[in-house]
Design brief:
Layout: H1 3-26, E1 27-30, E2 44-47, H2 52-72, H3 80-94, E3 110-114, E4 121-124, E5 128-132, H4 133-139, H5 143-158, H6 161-183, H7 188-220, H8 227-238, H9 253-277
Parallel strand pairs: 3-5
Antiparallel strand pairs: 1-2, 4-5
């Protein structure tokens, strides 16, 4: 091994050690939610560089800005019937969040319907929800199917998937930056490789967890959990076999349907129990 190569190798090992230390010290294992009947038990890792409260404050500000913009454009809660329907379903779902996360019952939940042709819905950290009219008019979901969508999005917030993904990217970017400095090699290829090998698989994990938890939230709220399967089939048909962008990271339609069917069967007793209370 020549002297030049040894020098580069020592720098590389040092960089890896630094990156590894930052990854270990910068992230702590957490369990954001209880496992529920569907058994979501994966240990999560959050970076101290992405504090929960600060992220929630940022989400609140962004949501407020977006709502004000939609209001100025005449795109906020234009159809009273749609708003009433979406809020009624969300109210029943939110009433069940304690099954996974008791503190979430005290979040400052907010729900709005935005006029847009986009087939979309989301829930920000801290419980700020938006449903786009494109989802309602193009997919034409039943109440149970709409509950499946909203339950899925609420689950992302309960599991703090946004903070987890930001934590992953924060640590990864720091590590790649250190590695680039040590070797003098651009991290462009490394960043792309990291996206494929690290970010995307975790994103699929997040989608699967949100699917499972969303099905349970819907069942506990008295909505037929099997509607998640028919919803997915409708979305695939409406987009020529491909899912809408906000669900596109899941491995495949066949895998998703199989997982949803299994989860639906598991939570059917919860659905039957909820129906009996009506």
């Amino acid at each position: 091994m020549n002297t030049g190569f040894r020098t580069v190798w020592r720098k590389l090992l040092g960089a890896i050690a630094v990156a590894g230390t930052m990854a270990v010290t910068g992230c702590a294992s957490v369990q954001t939610t209880q496992s529920g009947t569907v058994g979501v038990e994966r240990t999560q890792y959050m970076s101290s560089m992405v504090p929960e409260k600060e992220l929630e404050q940022e989400a609140n500000q962004q949501y407020s800005d977006l709502i004000q913009q939609a209001k100025a454009q005449g795109a906020l809660d234009r159809n009273a019937d749609q708003v009433s329907r979406v809020r009624a379903i969300s109210k029943r779902l939110i009433a069940q969040v304690g099954a996974f996360r008791p503190d979430a019952a005290n979040w400052a939940w907010e729900v709005h319907v935005l006029s847009s042709d986009e087939v979309n819905a989301w829930c920000m950290p801290g419980g700020k929800i938006a449903v786009y009219t494109g989802l309602l008019t193009q997919i034409k979901p039943t109440d149970a199917e709409l509950a499946a969508v909203m339950g899925h999005e609420i689950a992302h917030a309960l599991r703090e998937h946004a903070r987890e993904r930001m934590s992953q990217q924060m640590v990864t970017n720091v590590g790649l930056s250190v590695l680039s400095i040590a070797t003098g090699v651009s991290t462009d290829l490394g960043s792309k490789l990291t996206d494929v090998m690290f970010t995307l698989p975790n994103s699929r994990t997040h989608e699967s967890e949100a699917d499972m938890m969303g099905v349970e939230l819907a069942a506990r709220a008295g909505y037929d959990p099997r509607a998640a399967v028919t919803l997915w089939q409708k979305m695939g048909a409406a987009s020529n076999g491909a899912p809408p962008e906000f669900l596109s990271t899941h491995p495949s339609a066949a895998t998703r349907i199989s997982e949803l069917q299994a989860a639906s069967e598991r939570v059917m007793p919860l659905y039957e129990q909820a129906k009996g209370k009506k």
